[in-house]
Amino acid sequence: MIQIQTGQRIGPYRIAGLLGRGAFAQVHLAEDAKGRQVALKVGDTSGGGKFLPRFEEITTERDAHAVSPDETPAEALFLDPELGARAEVLDAAEVDELLVKEAELLVRADGAGTPRLHDVIWTAGRPVLVMEAIRGLTLRERIRSLEGVKMSWLVDVCGILEGLQAKGWTCHGDLKPENILVTEGEKLVLIDPVPESCRADRIVTTPAYNPFLRWDSKGDAQALAIQIYELLACSLPFERSPWPLAGTSLSAHGEEERRLSLSLFLSFPPLREVNALTPALISECVHHALCDARYGLSELRRDLEGFLMRR
Question: What is the pTM of this model?
Fold first, then answer.
């Protein structure tokens, strides 16, 4: 694990404090010689969500050594064509490759719903992303603090993702409450996008919010539906993720076995059974996003907007 201390210098920047950490990187607040603040994203090699140390109790504390137990860091998953997904550890070179590719995504986004990338600097042979420092709370922090979450924010996320597709993004790839920032002015910003893997047999994502291990727009729609479910049910729809046959070869299991396995996996408790106050349309949106292959981001945005207009 990398050790970065307050006051330390990385290139022309002085570290002012830790903003957060995930499975494969740490983000630090830093200042340049003129006192202008930036966020520095530095690659780590902690291995992934299953291997990341956690505090004993839920906490708002930011620490380079551990994360709160209610947070869900991404995992690197090796996709065995017969056995399915298993967590693996990434080495420094693989983490650095992810950072360089993330920088390319941020350049394409040009600050449209993402932090603006100022530069990529290299220190000790490793890349450091120099990004816009954004004041705000993650959706996870809003949930934890009971400050309230607006459905319109998730509509905004749909719109941001559709706009990013027009700029050449395929998807975000790791949408979850930890990766959605709500600024002080209630502007939505998406952080930590996952670029396409350089290996066909590996994906970096958070299975709880991407249970089918997709790297496409439909996967983003499913991740948003899971977050709506979590907000209304105070639990996730799937007890165990990912789907057992996610990432397996179509020829490794018979069609009947795959269909049965999928139907069993998708037999999650409907929202209205868990929370009787859930509006019927919202419950239907979640169901369609998770179960209907033809229901994507634009359909989810359209239906959520329609619901909000009727309120």
Answer: 0.95
